[in-house]
Amino acid sequence: MKKWTLIHKGKPELTREAEHFNISPEISQILKNRNINSEEEIKLFTNPTLDYLRDPFLMKDMKKAVDKIKEAVSDNKSIWIYGDYDVDGVSSTSVLLTYFKSIGYKVKYYIPNRLEEGYGINKEAIEYINKEGCDLMISVDCGITSVEEVEYANKLGITVIITDHHECQSEIPNAYAVINPKQDDCNYPFDMLCGCGIAFKLVQALTPKEEFKNTVNDYIEITTLATICDIVPLVDENRIIVKNGLKTMKSGKNTGLSELIKVCGVDKEKIGSSHIGFTIGPRINAAGRLGFSNLGVELFIEDDKEKAHEIALLLDEKNNDRQMIEMKIHHEAETIIKSDKSYQDDKVIVLAHEGWQHGVIGIVASKLTEKYYKPTILMCIEDGQATGSARSIKGFSIFEALNNCSDILTKFGGHEQAAGLSIKEENIEELRKRINESADVNLSEEDMIEEIKVEYELDENVVDFDLIEQLRKLEPFGMNNPTPKFIIRDCILRDMRLMGQNKQHIKIDIEKDNRYECVGFNASHLIEGLKVGDKIDILFQLDENTFMGNRKIQLLIKDIRLSHPKSTTKNIEAIKLMNKLVPSDENELYKISDIDTGLENVNISGKKEENIFEYLKEETLVIANSINGFFRAKSDVSLLDEDVDISFRKIEDNKKHSKINLIFAPNIDKIDLKRYNNIILYDYLYTKEDYVNLYANKENECKVIKNYSEIDKIYIKSIMENIIPNRNEFVVVYKYILKNKEIRFRIDDIMGIFKIIPLKMFTIFKVFKELDLIDMEIDEREFLRIEVLPKPEKKLDLNSSKILKNLNQIKEKAIEIYNY
């Protein structure tokens, strides 16, 4: 179950600043949700021109690096670019090679083989570069943790310039210049550029200002690719780069990238960040994962269209190979997890296996993290050494966690959400133990539930093609500017079906005021347990689908919740609520008040609130008396980022109070009403005396919000009509139990077995238990066990049941107030 949290509760608001740019309330609210408020911020976000690029010389050591590079070129020194094997490293290398090619200066490059050398600068590579002749080595997308390696290069007489964006450790390498805005003493105002973004800024600094305006498009496409694929926040300079880079891609300035886009079957006119992240980027990464990183570089610096097409086809082939390897590793990893129950308790999944391709395990780690919503470390073991990739979840820095285990690691580096590492095989279990101890301290149970941020509840009346076009103007989407997600609640599920070769996708039709077609990719699990006719809440992205010239609105499903089952007699949660409606013993009997005063003046009428979230604040009590009311209340409180506690009948005295308490079918007299600022009723109360008790015992300042309407009386009426069985039903059930002696069944099978609604059945069972005719219990798996007790000597007298008498009294009181 994922947690949905509304960023904005209520209708979208149009700000004065957004109105200045003729922006709709829907888009205005999304900008506000992203803390884009001032006219200057809105202008930069909606029209991020290249003029807004920052001065690269604000970055520490930038001038020093530029002067040294220009000096090396002037003195005809041998220059090497040392890159990394992923998209970011390949792109960074390509950007610098393109620059040196533009000034007619020949340089060489080196990218380590992922399978043989692993991540970062290594001494063997430095030795090779030195033998080939190197005066100046410029690292891109790596080097910030290579303290020993840089020292080794210094001893060989190689001048080193580091450009990197990864997290810094306690010691910075002794390079001639270190360009990384994450350094504590670097005052550059934006430190979230990817590695290629840093290389791009170096090129900007190397190029005269006016000339860079004319040549920027030679670099911006590749930098855009890296920025999207490295999953850095798409704000500030990253947004400027990507927004303009996607425009340039449509004209195809870079021959190699254009050919790869063609091979991928992507329409250049419609290319967006999702195409880059999920289709194009993986093909560059695939080559690196299989030890062919140079293919990506050769593609991006190739001007010949035919040669570029051949390389693009080869990259596509390598991607197919990668997918096969990935599927095998994924299957093996899942087998290990399912065969060992200890992984269920671990907050961090740590797996190691011989024969796994360490170039591919990062992708599998990402998939496991997404599925289980747990940080994941996968490692491949070879010759007593394990090399791995780590992925994390929100709120848990995997880099910091690894840093705390640095004494048992051979090497590590990375970010808060992703990292690489190597470790001796004998230390793997110790790593698993220590990193889970860290997670136990730093991750609560709530942290282990994935939270989806929702912009706001979308009004059906504004869902049209114009809104879709407006949303596209907010692109590119990515980290810190996610694709807007919305919810629509209480939709009727009209149709559902599985799609895809492995039936992993879904297509559903929903209806509220209008009917919509919805698709969910890799979302077949979302419709498990749902039935056509159920009411559901959907969380989605707004899109359109064009087929055979027919254009229609389509909702891309990201999550689904049951809002209200079509049949409450077959739904586990609804049946559990029916059980709670019936008192279990003398202590749970409904209060039958003898209050007379004030009854005639009680106003029980209410109305559905337009924005109930105005009242769902700290110290609020929410009361529901029917299954329908409970589902409505639960749907509302589940969208809050407040601490919410759901109780039944009453709040336990020893229980820590939450900010918001939702109580189902309570005894009003047993609630400490004075501690609440707001009391929200989602249903009519059962008696007028309950209303009198409520108003008499609350604080004067406490507001009572009656969030129901006249039609909701039908739900209270239904309870009262069905909670008391007739005598014949008691007899039939007792004979069945007597015949079978002991029975055990799931509570959602009650209707099928007894042909009596569950609400009545719980009354029957509890009365029988009260009269010592049976023993009964419901276990944690929702199985009900009933055992017949020795037949009493006295004849069964239902009238002696206090539970039955209590329910009859409540029914009489309800009839008085609701006149049915």
Structure description:
This protein is α/β, with parallel strands linked by helices. The protein is 39% helix and 19% strand. It is built from 28 helices and 25 strands. Strands 3-2-4-5-6 form a 5-stranded parallel beta sheet, with helices on both faces. Strands 7-8-9-11-10 form a 5-stranded mixed beta sheet, with helices on both faces. Strand 7, helix 17 and strand 8 form a beta-alpha-beta unit. Helix 5 packs antiparallel against helix 10 (217-229), helix 5 crosses helix 14 (294-300) and helix 10 (217-229) crosses helix 11 (236-251). It starts with a strand and ends with a helix. 41% of the residues are buried. The mean pLDDT is 91.
Secondary structure blueprint with pairings:
Blueprint: E1 3-6, H1 16-19, H2 25-33, H3 39-46, H4 62-74, E2 79-82, H5 87-102, E3 108-110, H6 123-132, E4 136-140, H7 147-155, E5 159-163, E6 177-179, H8 195-206, H9 209-215, H10 217-229, H11 236-251, H12 255-263, H13 273-289, H14 294-300, H15 305-339, H16 342-345, E7 349-354, H17 361-372, E8 376-382, E9 385-391, H18 398-403, E10 409-414, E11 418-424, H19 428-442, E12 451-454, H20 465-472, E13 486-499, E14 505-511, E15 515-520, E16 535-547, E17 550-564, H21 572-581, E18 620-624, H22 627-637, E19 644-648, E20 660-664, E21 678-681, H23 688-697, E22 703-706, H24 713-722, H25 727-740, E23 742-746, H26 750-754, H27 758-770, E24 774-778, E25 783-788, H28 802-818
Parallel strand pairs: 1-12, 2-3, 2-4, 4-5, 5-6, 7-8, 15-17, 18-20, 18-21, 19-20, 21-22
Antiparallel strand pairs: 8-9, 9-11, 10-11, 13-14, 13-16, 14-15, 16-17, 23-25, 24-25
